[in-house]
Amino acid sequence: VQLQASGGGLVQAGGSLRLSCAASGSFFSSYTMDWYRQAPGKQRELVATITSGGNTQYADSVKGRFTISRDNAKNTVYLQMNRLKPEDTAVYHCHGRKIGRDAWGQGTQVTVSS
Asked: Which among 6, 20, 99, 104 counts the fewest CB atoms within 10 Å?
């Protein structure tokens, strides 16, 4: 599978953005999908995960503000980000994985101004 992320931008604190990650190739529905982020000078952080069965997990830093979802008919995973904070500023990457397969999308920049 190949992944293409989009939807980043500049937003004021308290605002919202929705990131999308479109997958090409076969068997998207069988992949566990993740959103990661990396801020300058910081380690990459796992933000959210959704399994092929729809189970979700979130980093403590985004719980209650971010929602990950997937539309298997559109081969797309989303990250709805609400109540954004300046510390959410980072490059966000989508990642797909299953046994024997691993794929990364290019990053999309999210900048939250105070």
From this structure: 99
